[in-house]
Design goal:
The protein is built from 20 helices and 23 strands. It is an alpha+beta fold and 646 residues long. The chain folds into three domains: 179 residues, no CATH class; 165 residues, no CATH class; 133 residues, no CATH class. Strands 2, 3, 5, 9 and 10 form a five-stranded mixed β-sheet that branches. It comes from Anaerococcus lactolyticus S7-1-13. InterPro entries: CRISPR-assoc_prot_Csd1-typ.
Amino acid sequence: MSFFTTLFKSYNYGLNHGMIDKNDDNTYLILPLYHNSMKSNGKNIIEIKLDKASNLLEAYFLKSDEIVIFPVTEDSVSRSSGVSPHPLFDNFDYLVKDNNKKSLSYLDGISGWLNYENIDFVRIFYNFINRDKAFDEILTKLYGDYKIKNQKIIEYIDKSSGNGKKSNADFSKIYLSYKIENYDGLRDVSITENKTLHKKYIDYVNYILKNDKDTPKITCNISGEKDYLCLKHKPLLGSAKLISQITANNENFYGRFTDPSQTIKIGKNTSQKIMQMAKALLDCKNTSRWLGGMTYAISWFSDDIQNESNLDLTKNIKLVNKVSKNNFLNKNIKFEVHPDNNTGFKFADEISENIVKSFTNGKILFSDNSSYYFAVVDKISNGRVSVRYFNEIKSSELIVNLKKWQENYHWFGYSNDNGQFNYTPGLRRFIFAAYGTERDGKLEIDKDSFSTSQFSNIMAAVVEGRQMPQNIIKALEINIRNRQKYNNAWNEIELCTLAALRNKEEIDNNMLDRKKLDRSYLYGRLLALYELIEANTYSNDDARITNAEKLWSSFINNPVTINFRLRTLVMPYRFKLKADEKKRKLCENIDNEITTVSNLISDNYGDKDPSYNKPLGPGFIFGYEGQKNYIEYLNYKKSIEIDKEN
């Protein structure tokens, strides 16, 4: 299905399951047709309370994050200039009765609705707002003392500041909502809460359309239903539209059609359903992810349109599995001995379920037969929203693809609580590790448009079950060669590179592989050993960068030449390490490893080998990591033996 068809059908799913106009906790709101919503910031929306005789009882600013749902017209929802009032809820530029065009148009609009149907909820408000002194009554309730300056600027005493300071408020930008006291028995009812009013307004709009001879009836190209042709579509992000007004500019159809009537025909009700569904998905934290700038990823299921499973492709993934006590663990962790019951790590139905749960909040509320929808939308200008990417796949296929991603792109960690686990960094971490510049200990990307483009590509790869984009792989391969460029961010670069390249380099775990004779892997082992010799002569107080770290890039580019140099540079540290009785065994272990690795290189890659002094490949980082883990494991094993003796 197309993106628009998917949105249309998802809205209908919401209709059939009682999810439209359901505003219980403000977390997920699908608006009814021909309605909009606005969130209060504590200063932009005033609510008044009226009794059934249209008398003003209270006036106050709505608290921050409270939402108002209100009816709109096709013109008012996208107004930028001119006169286009909302039917009830609007700013005081329209509400103040001063006989200007906006005020007259606003009152005429309500009057026309009442002439169609005498709705007491609307009539009560109309009788109040039509009074000459309605604005003054509201200001008196709000401030007590006030002064109307030019236009609708109000000067008042700000009592909240405690010092009675004079302040100004521009009421042309402040909106007015209302509620009626004891409207439903003893319950006060507001515009937002009056769902019967919402339905009555939709009926009124359909009545207007039916009697408007200038609005042609067509067969909608998306719904296949008879509907009224929509020329002005509701904006999605600010004033930017997902569907352009096809007749607004000739460039919208020139080159493809000779006349705008030849373009796609979308009905008004269909357009409303599409836009209301898109807005709901963008506004909900479960279905929307900000990618940077004005770019958003939205995702949902055909049978879980709220994404209550909270499936999030950007999460860091941690899967626990049982390991043997002989496993060589990661270097930046605390070691523990585990029971000798290694079961390995095999993907089975239970593991697949755990993977999916790790991408969610632990609940799987979608079925295997459902469809998963994923889109990236981008506000490319003040008037236009583009769909950068859209895909629909079966949920069963998505589960396979999520499993594939986790299996291909994870590294190994350890915790006291869970033991060893497989860890997949979040997608944003891969991107920032590949293209970020370290500033103040953090990785940053200067250009939002670039990072959002990369984010779109990598998320699409996850959804479609593809490999990680090669440009990200290549960038990580370059970064891992340049350790001197990073300080605090180095561990992040290393983790993401290990996870991204593990499958490509055919690495099964973080243990030292003594059977692996790859040249880059062997030299990586040497680099780790040189670093360990020097690092273990320092205490925590005088620790500093080692020669191996300083010559990291040079070693990778000229391994044979720099190998000889490093061996000479670390010799004083070797003597110091060997002289320390507590570390003598460590020095012997490192010496033995250096001899073993050097012999393997000599036997397999002599001076006549074509690759004798060529730069190392990215596989060196796995030899480096495995060798460090092995030496640290030996240290740990020795400490356990000493503890037992004592």
